[in-house]
């Protein structure tokens, strides 16, 4: 078990706020602005999901970002994890963090509401793993950080989520072409429950959280559990293999570039 005081002020990239009803706001940021993705946020989320899930005083989680973007930046970017040819041991660190992050999120047993406050340019699968997904009118979903712009195999989990939610053909099209889905397109395709003006996003998330909170705790927890079971099984079956292929292709790319 964990307590709110164990993690309330322990994270650089995540801000926490909990009200008297046990509704936990989990807000990603970088220096108080929109989240800039990197190894730091990934490592923190992999730990934070475990602590949040182990705190039995949390009853509903609102998972959101800060500012005009949910997560970024869009590649190409200078803060690449590896310089030169990455060693397998370096990729092993990324594999360890990556597998812990999504599975830690899926192991949370209280309902999760994603309040997507703008473009999800990096790891768009994270909000889509929540039970209810709300988005602003200017929100977009994309996976350009892998195949399309990042020269990487999309094997870290986004492939699993997009295939399950969009179907294989739409998911493959999106990953190969770098397609950006607008909030309205995402709603039509079933990825998003509601599209809202920015000033209505968090109030609506809290409204839904309070509505859920009126139900018995075990009903809420176990409804989440049964609805994440298939996702867990798919991540256990495919994520390690996908990330191993992502690492292998990246090492080969880096070695080929070095030989030129």
Relative helix content? 40-55%
CATH architecture: Alpha-Beta Complex
Order of strands across the biggest sheet?
1-2-3-4-5-8
Radius of gyration: 18 Å
Number of domains: 1
Mean model confidence by pLDDT: 95
Number of helices in the DSSP assignment = 10
N-C termini distance: 53 Å
Report on the structure:
This protein has 10 helices and 8 strands. With about 260 residues, it is of the alpha/beta class. The chain has a single domain (about 5-260), classed as 2-enoyl-CoA Hydratase, Chain A, domain 1. The strands form 2 sheets. It has a 6-stranded mixed beta sheet, with helices on both faces. A hairpin with a 4-residue loop joins strand 1 (about 15-20) and strand 2. It starts with a helix and ends with a helix. The model has no long low-confidence stretch (mean pLDDT about 95).
Give the helix/strand layout.
Blueprint (H helix, E strand, L loop, with lengths): L3 H4 L6 E5 L4 E6 L10 H15 L6 E5 L23 H19 L5 E5 L8 H4 L3 E5 L3 E2 L2 H5 L9 H9 L1 H10 L3 E2 H6 L5 E3 L1 H16 L3 H43 L1
Parallel strand pairs: 2-3, 3-4, 4-5, 5-8
Antiparallel strand pairs: 1-2, 6-7
Helix pairs in contact: 2-3, 3-10, 6-7
What's the short version?
This protein has 260 residues and is of the alpha/beta class. It is 50% helix and 13% strand.
From the structure above, extract its key features.
260 residues; alpha/beta; two-stranded antiparallel sheet; 10 helices; globular
